[in-house]
Specification:
alpha+beta, Peroxisomal Thiolase, Chain A, domain 1
């Protein structure tokens, strides 16, 4: 069997302490689940074989299997099982990979996948003392982003900040500040244009109780001159600033996957086939470069090369790591993140993988390209990638049937 993307939906992505700050992560996730199911009105939710949900934090209101909690809040029947997976920034793309494998081996015909993060509502935590009632002070640790409660046996070079990791990447590849700022401005410009042109109108669904209708971080008036005035965020004399890195965000994304036979159950035609999957791991401090190999592995499993790829959705954790990956792949930069990326749209960690997958499926259909790659870097030295084959015109689906029949 083969897994297909049928439809996708996401909430608007809110800024840190912004319009979604008052919304619990399980409610954000429920909004995305309800939104994607509303796009398949012919589907009886009881027919969903599994929900696989991504979340990076799980330290606060997103604890105790937020995927299951969100499904119940969204009114999905209690008989539908759900799990939550954590591969940090890649959590919801990992959810899609896991869900597609379940379909591939015949364990489910319909799988709902996605992810959520409220970086605003991520709590502070206190470690338990070695013995009761210590006399000294105790420090609360933020769970919003990055390393925390680090094991002292971890090598120090592995546990530097995410920003410092990417300053090291900048030194390795010699990518100047000016080029990073130009990439960031492009992200804002393309995201603003995509919203103005209506591209996101049927991908983005509202959140109950919140008035946000667009991604809150998109700045249509961003310029290289404005970004050049920002101070480096991670080291004196560095190149990474708040303007050329992804911000902290809140949001949720969902994708409905199914087998070919599930079209009758879902009531929709599939829009894309999951043609290849890839994972990569390397030194934790080099995580920003890991998508290079993850994408190569996904392409190899799809049986195609970069010359057949017409669109790339690469999560923009930092401009510098995005540029390093695009340079290494040797692809035309004009096919990358054509509707804006995470620097503008936002990067709520657990939601970003499903966002880029849903966006890629729609970009391929809009542009008439056959193959696309969704890739995401992951803290602690990992990355994931998925290759999609566009089936919007159903011609490719017919070709696929003929190919499989001849095997």
């Amino acid at each position: 069997m083969t897994a297909f993307v049928y439809t996708a939906a996401r909430t608007p992505f809110g800024r840190f302490n912004g319009s979604l700050a008052g919304v619990r992560p399980d409610d954000l996730a429920a909004s995305a689940i309800s939104g994607v199911l509303a796009k398949a009105p012919g589907l009886d939710p009881a027919a969903i074989g599994e929900i696989v949900w991504g979340n990076a934090n799980q330290a606060g209101e997103d604890n105790r299997n937020v995927g299951r909690m969100a499904a119940l809040l969204a009114g999905v029947p209690v008989s539908v099982p759900a799990t939550t997976v954590n591969r940090l920034c890649g959590s919801s793309l990992d959810a899609a990979i896991i869900g597609s494998r379940a379909i591939d081996v015949g364990e489910a015909d319909v799988v709902l996948v996605g992810g959520v993060e409220s970086m605003t509502r991520a709590p502070w935590v206190l470690p338990k003392p070695d013995r009761a009632f210590p006399a000294g002070h105790v420090t609360a640790v933020s769970t919003t982003l990055g390393w925390r409660l680090v094991n002292p046996r971890m090598p120090a070079e592995w546990t530097v900040s995410l920003g410092e990791c990417n300053e090291q990447l900048q030194e390795r590849f010699g990518i100047p500040r000016e080029r990073q700022d130009e990439f960031a401005v492009r992200s804002h410009r393309l995201a603003a244009a995509a919203w103005d042109e209506g591209f996101y109108d049927d991908l983005v669904v509202p959140v109950d109780g919140a008035g946000l209708v667009r991604d809150e971080g998109v700045r249509a008036d961003s310029t290289v001159e404005k970004l050049a005035a920002l101070k480096p965020s991670f080291r004196e004399g560095g190149t990474i600033t708040a303007g050329n890195a992804s911000p902290l965000n809140d949001g949720a994304s969902a994708v409905l996957l199914g087998s070919e036979a599930a079209a009758d159950v879902i009531g929709l035609a599939p829009v894309a086939r999951i043609a290849g999957r890839g994972a990569c791991a390397l030194e934790p401090q080099a995580f920003g470069f890991a998508p290079v190999e993850a994408a190569e592995r996904a392409l190899a499993r799809a049986g195609i090369g970069w010359d057949q790829v017409g669109a790339v959705e690469l999560n923009e954790a930092f401009a510098v790591q995005s540029l390093a990956c695009v340079d290494a792949w040797g692809v035309d930069p004009d096919i990358v993140n054509v509707k804006g990326g995470a620097i503008a749209i936002g990067h709520p960690l657990g939601a970003s993988g499903a966002r880029i997958l849903g966006t890629l499926a729609k970009v391929l259909a809009e542009r008439g390209e056959r193959y696309g790659v969704a890739a995401i870097c992951i803290g602690v030295g990992q990355a994931l990638a998925v290759v999609l084959e566009n089936l919007q015109n159903l011609q490719n689906l017919g070709n696929l049937k003929n190919t499989e029949a001849g095997r």
